[in-house]
Write a structure and sequence with these properties.
The structure holds 2 protein chains of 2 kinds. Chain A is of the alpha+beta class. Chain A contains 4 helices and 9 strands, in the order E-E-H-E-E-E-E-H-E-H-E-E-H. Helix content of chain A is 26%, strand content 34%. In chain A, strands 6-1-2-3-4-5-7-9-8 form a 9-stranded mixed beta sheet, with helices on one face. In chain A, a hairpin with a 4-residue loop joins strand 1 and strand 2. The longest helix of chain A has 17 residues. By secondary structure, chain B is mainly α. Chain B has a domain of 105 residues: lambda repressor-like DNA-binding domains (434 Repressor (Amino-terminal Domain), Orthogonal Bundle). Chain B has 9 helices and 1 strand, in the order ααβααααααα. The chains are: A alpha+beta, B mainly alpha. Chains A and B meet through strand 5, helix 2, strand 7, helix 3 and strand 8 of A and helix 1, helix 2, strand 1, helix 3 and helix 4 of B.
């Protein structure tokens, strides 16, 4: 999985791994927008870093709905310097969503599904950018659409 | 920072490229949302072709193999035989049928699955060909390496005892 450094166009390999207790020293609300400590015990949390570096560039929290063969993305954020036009890297959120897709395929095999509950104004973008489809208020990905997204980010 | 404030600073597209925001629904809204998603998923799964489902299953299997061979230590629960058995189950093939398709007999296949015999060099290649390259030979080979590592670690003390008599002139340097 790679993200692109926008200043140079260079592709950088990233690693996504579970958030550990020691990471909370680094995960401040100022840089990562939400109170991520509230997710502890509620959802599984993962961090995105450039391979072999410790600086966290993005976070995701995921809830498991095994009966429905579904993982729900509760929260995602890119670090403060990666929001908007002046951001350093592109592809952080795409990598995190594809990672959740990878987890879902490993856990639930061919019927795996991922979903998220979007803000109304952002709905159209998630559909266009990640191929998500309407499932009531939630958006979801399964089957060939999920496989295509995972293949795009995890070639 | 609140979502409304962020919307003043960034476009919706920029926000979607950086966030999935927390959303709160009332219990009633949540119940209706769950029902609607469940129905959408049911319809989607009904329409899913066998090929589409199998492709997803094979991707899941490939990712599990990758996680295993990239892990630091061998795991007693996983082996070449474990992943081979999963592959055959995903294909919904009978063992006899599958053995014939890769040109071996059923007994030999069972020996590989039950870890009674290490797979020879041709097996990863045949499995790559059979899976139409969805499970590359390199993946199977790395799993076999992991099996060998586990076996050696289990038997190392006994092997050292057995092999010691064949080695003379050991160097005196220690690191």
């Amino acid at each position: 999985m790679v993200i692109v450094e926008l200043a140079t166009g260079q592709e950088l390999t990233v690693a996504i791994s579970p958030v550990e207790n020691k990471d909370f020293r680094q995960i401040t609300k100022k840089r990562y927008s939400f109170d991520w400590k509230m997710e502890r015990g509620v959802a599984d949390m993962f961090k995105l870093t450039i391979a072999n570096r410790s600086d966290i560039l993005g976070l995701v929290s995921v809830m498991d709905f095994p009966v429905e063969l579904r993982l729900q993305i509760r929260l995602i954020c890119a670090s403060k310097e990666n929001i908007g036009q002046g951001k350093q890297y592109a592809g952080i959120v795409g990598c995190l969503i594809a990672f959740v897709g990878n987890l879902a395929l490993k856990r639930f095999s061919g019927l795996a599904c991922i979903s998220l509950l979007p803000k109304t104004e952002l709905r159209v973008h998630y559909k266009r950018e990640y191929g998500m489809v309407d499932g009531g208020p939630q958006l979801y990905l399964d089957g060939a659409r999920l496989q295509a997204l995972v293949n795009k980010y995890l070639p | 920072m609140s979502y409304k404030k962020l919307l003043q600073e960034f476009t919706p597209e920029e926000l979607a490229e950086a966030f999935v925001f927390p959303m709160k629904l009332s219990p009633k809204q949540q119940r209706i949302a769950d029902q609607q998603l469940s129905e959408a998923l049911r319809l989607s799964r009904e329409k899913m072709t066998r090929q589409e489902r199998l492709a997803g299953s094979l991707m899941g299997l490939r990712f599990r193999m990758e996680d295993y061979f990239k892990s630091d230590k061998p795991n007693e629960d996983y082996s070449f035989g474990y992943f081979l058995k999963l592959y055959i189950q995903l294909l919904e093939r009978k063992r006899r049928e599958f053995a014939a398709e890769i040109g071996i007999n059923e007994t030999l296949l069972s020996q590989f699955i039950n870890r009674h015999r290490m797979p020879p060099d041709y097996m990863p290649i045949r499995l790559e060909l059979h899976s139409n390259n969805t499970l590359p030979a390199e993946h199977w080979l790395k799993i076999i390496e992991k099996d060998k590592e586990r076996e050696m670690l289990c038997n190392k003390a006994m092997m050292i005892k057995k092999e010691k008599k064949f080695v003379t002139g050991a160097i005196s340097v220690r690191l």
